[in-house]
Amino acid sequence: MHSINALTARRDLTMDSPEDFLRRLFDTAVEAVLPEHCLPGQLPAPPDTGRTIVVGAGKGAAAMAQSVEAAWPGNLSGLVVTRYGHGAETEHIDVLEAAHPVPDAAGRKAAERMLQMVDGLDDDDLVLCLLSGGGSALLTAPAPGVPLDDKQTVNKALLRSGATIFEINCVRKHLSAIKGGRLARAAYPARVVTLMISDVPGDDPAVVASGPTLADATTLDDARAVLAKYGIEPPESIAACLTDPANETPKPGDDHLTRSDAIVVARAADALAAAEALAEREGFETIVLGDDLEGEARGLGAVHARLALDCKAAGRTVLIVSGGETTVTVRGNGRGGRNVEYLLGLAQALSGADGIYAIACDTDGIDGSEDNAGAVVLPDTLARARDRGIDPQGCLDNNDAYGLFSAIGDLVMTGPTRTNVNDFRAILVTNF
User: Which of 62, 101, 131, 353 has a beta carbon 3.0–4.6 Å from 82's, enabling a disulfide?
Assistant: First the structure.
């Protein structure tokens, strides 16, 4: 937290509108975690005599591959898979695109090719694995006996259930032939170095992209418990898979994972630190609530609204920032991701309070499965929606926050950023 320079803050908000200032904060946060900035200094030395094979998955995987090619001093080849529209130009590393958040056949093809690429390597070879958020859905190689459409069915149910990313990835690992350490086991005895841009609260490397190169501490029992917790009745093939001991993931201490290391090269804390530094330079007091916040999106929005209203009542001009990954329990049939749902919950709780502005966006540029990164909330957000005949509470009940913010022109559209450290949220409270 930093003390405020009210004159500086007032001056800056006469030059920028509050929403423009919030957008600059988001852009600064994303810039700090782009692969071109965070990855080159973390590359390992090339092997003395062996080959270098690059594999990877995630919304930032293509840009990561591009950065590796620009900095790598030796020969390499490989394949990464990214979301449709998130590709980048590369020369030596193939880039395939596939579906996210529900996997498709293109993702399965990419995963199968990666397993073939690392098969039969020697101990003087190097596998460089590039992972970022979204890798779990993109790197899909169903376990033996599990049809892709059954895996898609369970994935969709989990995404609608309100399950956390930790719970979703626990299930994904146990339905996969490549996640949960299996890629590193297939590459043994080659050395495996994983560079990852973390999108998970707490930055546990074994959770990012469901940890294809790292040991998994979760179990088949845990995966079955997740489905039971959310009342998800799995298809017969899924139920059989989750009761077969052969589908247990490699555990800590597995001999085939002894040559696998992982480095987190960027995380949500880095994005928040960049935004906080910008706010400090421009004279704002900042409150950082943390980079790993979870919970139901609309509920967290209401909690943050109360904090903003308390700051307003105390006469403070302050910027409140946070990161992490909320969840949305889908009960309606509207459109929207967790960031716009957070914002609509925030706006409802603020109830048009004067002088409070907010932005919430996914750092990958895609909020859920929509075309927006997020949106902004202004003091007149609810009034403008009602002027158009839109019922804000009805939109919230129908999980249709996208519809509301689209109608009033307050969506934030960035296109793919080719990185992903999850959600960025900032609330600006003014008292001048």
Answer: 62
